[in-house]
Design goal:
The protein is built from ten helices and twelve strands. It is α/β, with parallel strands linked by helices and 298 residues long. It folds into two domains: 79 residues, Winged helix-like DNA-binding domain superfamily/Winged helix DNA-binding domain (Arc Repressor Mutant, subunit A, Orthogonal Bundle), CATH 1.10.10.10; 200 residues, 3-Layer(aba) Sandwich (D-Maltodextrin-Binding Protein, domain 2), CATH 3.40.190.290. Strands 3, 4, 5, 6, 9, 10, 11 and 12 form an eight-stranded mixed β-sheet that branches. A two-stranded antiparallel sheet has the order 1-2. A two-stranded parallel sheet has the order 7-8. Helix 1 crosses helix 2, helix 1 crosses helix 3 and helix 4 packs antiparallel against helix 10.
């Protein structure tokens, strides 16, 4: 009877997320030859090719995409099972900071799974901008923080997730066709703002910043009302938004990295168990796009 190897599945998920065997080898702390051997054995186990080569990139086949969903579920269930037996008697309060860009769709995943396993641990959640979360961690006002990484980030935590950044507009409006195009962006110290403005400058696309806010809810509201175009990561997409691409005059923005940081004092078992749960649940989480998000361009 064939049994899937969880270590092979973790390596497989890493390759799917970073796009190459070489980069995945660094993520899973293995040599490239060991990663290649694991994937050959995994393909033998499932009896189907799961990768196709595209230059230096490793792309998933149709069967590979099917396996990826199952792999993430198996890894998550394994980690939750082990966590359930770590220390059921843990009690206390953990203070967690997270930007509201992620809170709407990522936070429920973290809280629901964690509360089932650790019902006696209270989580105090403070939704703040990344810069504020970093400052509060340094001051000891928070224990753990989920933050956005950028080229000019003031803190570098453990990278736990990578997501595509998208230009987004309203599905029911054509504000993206205006010249100059109005934008709804974060404050000037926001890494996504600086990166998106530089990208438009390189393309020669005229724009004006029409709305500025540190609250993702306000930026999404401007987009859905048809007042502006904004920049959001995959997990922040909402129904009735359309993703804008090169055919609409919007350049690729690459990926956003989501990191986990912790305060110097946060060294107790309750901090460890929540930190481990965040890493496991978010790194393996498959985002399902809202069904009414419209793709305006390939």
């Amino acid at each position: 009877m064939n049994v899937l190897d969880l270590d092979q599945l973790r390596t497989f998920v890493a390759i799917a997320e970073v796009g190459s065997f070489t980069a995945a080898a660094d993520v899973v702390h293995k040599t490239q030859s060991a990663v290649s051997m694991q994937m050959r054995r995994l393909e033998e186990r499932v009896g189907r090719p799961i990768f196709s080569r595209d230059g230096r990139q490793s792309r998933l086949t149709e069967d590979g995409h099917r396996l990826l969903e199952y792999a993430r579920r198996l890894i998550r269930l394994n980690d939750e099972t082990l966590s359930a037996f770590e220390d059921p008697g843990l009690t206390g309060t953990v203070r967690l900071g997270i930007p509201d860009d992620y809170a709407d769709r990522l936070l429920p995943t973290v809280l629901a799974g964690f509360s089932r396993i650790n019902p006696m641990i209270e989580i105090y959640v403070d939704c703040q901008r990344t810069h504020t979360v970093v400052d509060m961690i340094r001051e000891g006002a928070l224990d753990l923080g989920i933050i956005s990484h950028g080229a000019h980030s003031t803190a570098r935590g453990q990278v736990i997730r990578r997501e595509q950044l998208f230009w987004v507009g309203s599905r029911d409006h054509c504000v993206h066709e205006l010249d100059p195009v109005p934008l709804a962006l974060g404050p000037e110290d926001c890494c996504w703002r600086s990166e998106s403005v530089r990208a438009l400058d390189r393309e020669g696309r005229r724009f004006r910043v029409a709305y500025t806010s540190g609250a993702a809810l306000a930026l999404s509201g401007a987009v859905l009302a048809g007042l502006a175009v904004s920049v959001l990561p995959e997990s922040a997409l909402k129904p009735n938004m359309r993703i804008l691409g090169a055919r609409d005059g919007f350049p690729d923005l690459g990926h956003a990295e989501i990191g986990l940081i912790r305060a110097d004092h946060a060294k107790s078992p309750i901090h460890d168990v929540l930190a481990n749960h965040i890493v496991n649940s978010l790194s393996n989480l498959a985002i399902v796009e809202p069904p009414t998000v419209g793709m305006a361009a390939e």
